[in-house]
Specification:
By secondary structure, this protein is an alpha+beta fold. The chain contains six helices and seven strands, in the order βββββααααααββ. Helix 1 crosses helix 2 and helix 5 crosses helix 6 (126-132). Bound molecules: zinc ion.
């Protein structure tokens, strides 16, 4: 290649093999194949170039969302980011406050089974989650009434107070 190391000025040579893909934000992902180009200088500084990145990131997200074991905290964060969701929106959809989600995504609080499953469901259908989950409030619903009018023409449900959908 003939280009020089940005850190020490040494000559970069192309190398092969597997790349520990820490740039993904996960510690347990490795990448290889002809889409992965790596260079190394004599002092061991490396640069890596990965082709078709969007597709790779999406494939990794899909793999995580379908894995059997509990999601780890970096995986929860990865799935949220793969949707381009802000943490505040994910917290609202999960029904937790932003600080709670932040502790989970930084490994300071465990990923509960409920959060694990919710994040996967949200990942599979983010637009529905946005429409439905984010509109929910935690106000008590004690005074709500539902009047069901059932006729041969169909069923109509009237709510009191009316169900209000907040659009973000
Ligand atoms: Zn170097």
């Amino acid at each position: 290649m003939g280009h020089r190391c940005r850190e020490c000025g040494g000559e970069m040579r192309q190398v092969g093999g597997r790349h520990h893909w820490v740039e993904s934000g996960l510690g347990n992902v490795y990448i290889e194949g002809d889409q992965v180009k790596q260079w190394e200088c004599p002092n061991g500084h490396k640069t890596v170039q990965i082709g078709g990145l969007k597709n790779l990131l999406d494939t990794l997200a899909e793999t995580l969302a379908n894995k059997r074991g509990r999601l780890t905290w970096p995986e929860v964060r990865y799935l949220r980011k793969s949707l381009y969701w802000k943490a505040g929106n994910m917290a609202r959809a999960l029904g937790v406050d932003a600080a709670t989600l932040s502790r989970v995504e930084n490994g300071h609080a465990p990923v509960s089974a409920a959060v694990d499953r919710m994040v996967r469901m949200i990942y599979q259908n983010p637009s529905e989650a946005e429409r439905n989950l984010m509109a929910l409030t935690d106000e008590p619903g004690e005074n709500e009434e539902f009047l069901i009018t059932a006729t041969a023409a169909g069923i109509v449900v009237t709510t009191k107070p009316p169900i209000v959908r907040q659009e973000a």
